[in-house]
Each structure stands twice: as structure tokens, then as C-alpha cells.
Amino acid sequence: MSWLHAAFDSVSDAQDALEQLAEAGVAASEIEVRSSIPLVHEACPVGLEVRSRVPLMAVVGGLVGATVAFLLVSLTSQAYPLPTGGMPIVPLPTAGVITFEGVALGAILCTVATVLYECRLPRLGGRSGPLDHHLASGSIIVAAKSDAGASDAWAAKARATEVQPAA
Amino acid sequence: MGRPAGAFKEEALLRPLSGIRPGLIAGSLVTGAIMGLLFFCWGYQVRNDIGVAGINRPVFWGFYITNFVFWIGISHAGTLISAILRVTSAEWRRPVTRCAEAITVFALSIGGLFPLIHLGRPWLFWFMIPFPNSRGLWPNFRSPLVWDMMAIGTYLTGSVLYLLLPLLPDMAILRDRALAETPASLKARLYTLMALGWRGTTQQWHSLEAGIKAMAIIIIPVAVSVHTIVSWDFSMTLQPMWHSTIFGPYFVVGAIYSGIGVLMVAMYLLRRGLRLEEYLTDKVFNNLGLLFVAFTVIWTYFTAAEHITVWYGHEPSEMAVFWERLAGDYAGIFWGMIIVNTIIPLGVLSFRWGRRPLATAIVGLGVLIGMWIERFLIVVGTLRMPRMDFTVGTYSPSWVELGVLVGSFGMFAMLYFVFVQLAPIVSIWEVREGDHIANPLPASSQPIGEEV
Predict the structure, then answer these.
(1) pTM for the complete prediction?
(2) Contact residues on chain B for A13, CB-CB shorter than 8 A
């Protein structure tokens, strides 16, 4: 099955195309929208649920970072205890500073890793898609799987169209 | 999308990235040569030992630590200011964030060099890394110096990622343009690599926005912690005029203050040099100028609070340092600092005419000088007069330290010159998004019917 890609100059044209695709009964999973700005709430295939676990994973990363940092401080300090004149070997206030940085580092790394995972990046061998050069000048690309003989009327307002044959 | 397709309004942003720009190449070479001074002086010091620097008893921390605190402070220009503006959804942030975030990464990299330079024997630096050395010792996590390394490492990691993450969509725009124009060029391959395969799908945008928002929230406390911990290098000791409970916030405020100063100067030079008047508008300078006024007042308040408390307590060791600053050897630079950090900013930026680009850049330059003096007075002013009277000493920097200082500014400028030739210094997609928000649904375009 091939894909029909269409580049639109305005968000409203892309929205019209998406509405027509929905009316024609094309499933959201068979439609893709690409743009050079975030249009998650404006030009989204009808019925498509976009979700992100970034906030949750940032918290998880923070907890893991805190645990690792605290263990690093406490275990290494106890492995070779320096003379502290009767003061604690692992004082919580000083361990807290390192633990705080561990929270932040864990959360940062987990956030970035989650973004890359959800975006399916890096895709180093991946080439630009059809019409993607239109993204550079601000167009919005709507792509939909097309059956032979099905109406392509949804792409009527497009400034450019291209059919991508099935791989 | 707010502007017709084909009419690539952001052409001004791509100008530095296309073709050979003699001005930018000359700038890179000149600043690169100045940066060479840093490495020459450092190499000379490594070869001839730390004695070639002017530091000696009792002033063991001189220019190097002053520069360290200064550059770490400068780094607060970017990520912190950018994150605050993102979290508060300030629309005028859009042209500012990228050039601010780049400042952070470059300033942190330079600031991080100074402890190595100060170490004298930089090859022993790995003793600070949490990895047991040949004697089975781990770093002493009770030491503020180790906290420093952890905090700066975290901030640098976060800042680099915070710069790179929002860069992906712009790299994809550059990739798509380059592939359409010259598919086999080195530029096309470079941008293809740097875009990591970004396609701009709905899911990608959703995840990226969530990631940027999360990073902005995380990075703010990290930035605050970094300069607080730098201040604890001083305030955790009992030295006169260092052992202060307000040193943390005082350093953070000073860092943001100097950060805005360098941002003003950088933005003015970018606006003039790259002709970005359309993006770095008078309104942006006016808003940053107002922020600058606020931080002038806060910094002045902290400086006054710090000195009045010491004067009222009248503790002899502290008063020795106090009078040295206000009426002694350092009175000239102290009052100079007050002029460039308080009197001039308030006198100029309080008026609308003073918040125009050139005026704010000049004030920003003055604040940079003033904040460097502040760090010098804190570091050297106290160490010259420690608690034990018989150890009073003097300090004057050697040519090696001066060379390293000048070279660090060259390095900063060189990194910036290289960056503006590799990536758009104003975020294209964020500016486009701003246009779209201001003009959400323009009239439907007519079908062109171009078949590809």
C-alpha cells in the first residue's frame, strides 16, 4: 500500500484535509502529520492519542539518581573512613548536597533518554521523507495510506503532493 | 502558519550558516589567536610550575579562582534565564533563548578549566573523580570542592542537553534545505547527522515539548545550587567577610546579574553583526533592561546588607578587610564597582531611552567589569588579611595570570563565532511558533497544484 504525502501552506488547510480523511474513515494510525512547529492540538489526526511518559520518567530518574548518589557517598566514605574527630562518617547535610545533584542528574538523563525513545531517535540512517523540504519553508505535511482508486480529494488544497510507493 | 510558504522569512537567521562569511571567519581566527594565549600561558605554567603565577602566602587563590567564580556566574545567563522565561511562558523569550543557552555552555566550559589551571598539576585532577586512586582513597564528599565538581558537572551536562534538545527541529530544517539544494554536500551530511533523524511528527513534537518543559523545571534548582555551592567554597570557612549566611543567595543574584550583562552585550553584537534587528528587537532589549534594573536593585541590597552587618558587628578581623575595601588599597576598585554596578545601571536603565540596545549593551559591559571586581575583592581581599595578623600579605597577578584571563575571553568569543556558523543563533521553530500563536489561523491558501 502506498502513501500519499501532501504539503499544505496553512494550518486550516491541513485541518480540512484531516477532517476529510476522518470522514472517509481513514484510521488515525494510517495518517501522519509533520510540521516545523508543534501543532499537537491543532493539526492532529482525529482519534490519535499522543502520550508522553517524560514527566513520570523524570521522577523515576530523580529517584534512581538520588539512590545512586547517596550510596556512592555513604559506601565509599565507610569503605575508607577518614579521621573526623568523632563527627559522623556520613553526615546527612553534606551527603544531601551530593544526593541533590544526583536527583537532578538522574532526572535530566532520564528525561532526555525518554524523549529520544519516544521520538524513535536517533535515526542516523534515516533520510528525509517525501516533500520534507517544504517543512523548511513552513508548510505542513499530511500523509495518508491510500488505497488504489480511493479519493485523494483531501489533498486538493495542497501546494504539492507526492505518492510514496510501498517499500 | 503566519507567513506564506516559499517566502522564507527566516533567511536572516540562516545567513551566517550559508557560504563563506569573511567577517565571521576573521573573527574566529582573531579570537582563536587570543584563545591561544590562554593555552600558551597555561602550558608555560605547567612547564615551569605554579610559581610563575602571582599567588603566594597567604593569597593562595588569586586570578584563577576569581575567574572561575566569574565564568561560572556568567553561565547563569543562559540556561537559568531561558528556563525561567520558558516556565513563565514569556513570549518575548523566543529570540533570546538559544543565544543565552549557548552562553551557558561556553562559559561553564571555560569556568571549569580554571580549577584545573589553578591546580598546577592538572594531571592529578582525577583524584576528584569518584573513582578510587592508587591509595584506595575516594573523594572526600564532605568537602565543598567536591560538591563543586558534582554541581558543575551536573549543570554542564544539563545545559548541553538543554541546548541540544530544542536544536533538533532547527537542525532538521537545515538538513531538509541542504538536501534539497546540495544533497551530496558536507553541510547536508553534517546537518543530517545533527538532526538525528528528526521528522517533526505529532508524537515527536509532543515528547519534545514535554522534555523541554521538564528540563526547564529541573535546571532552575540546579543552576541555583551551582552558584550556592560555589559560594560555600568561601562561606564554609571562618575567614573574615566569607563566613556569611547570605553568601549563597548573594552569589546567585550576582551570577544572574552578570549573566544578564553578558547576554545584553552578546545580543547587541549579534544584532549588529548578523543584522538580526527583526528578531532581537527593541522590545526584547527593553524587557531585559527592566529585568536588569530589578537585579541591580537586588544586588545592591545584598551588597549593602553584607557590608552593614559586618560594620555593625565590628569584629576586628572583619573590619580590617572591610576598611581595606572601603578606604584602603582596594577602595578605588570597590567604589568603581559601585558606580558601574549600581549608579550607572539605575541612572540609565530606569528610563526608557536607556533601555535601547546600545545603552543596555554598554551598561552590561560595565556590569561585567564590576562583577569581575566583586569576585576579585571577595577572593583576594579576604585572603590578603586572614584572621592571623602576622600573615598579612600582598598579591599582584603575573603576566601568566593576565594572559590566561585575556585568553579566556578570547576562547568565549571564539566558541561563539564557531557556534553562529554552525547553528541558527535564534531558534527558527520557536520564532515560527510565536508567529503562529500571534496569528493562529491565517486565510486558507489557494491550491497551487504543484505536482512533484
Answers:
(1) 0.91
(2) 444-445
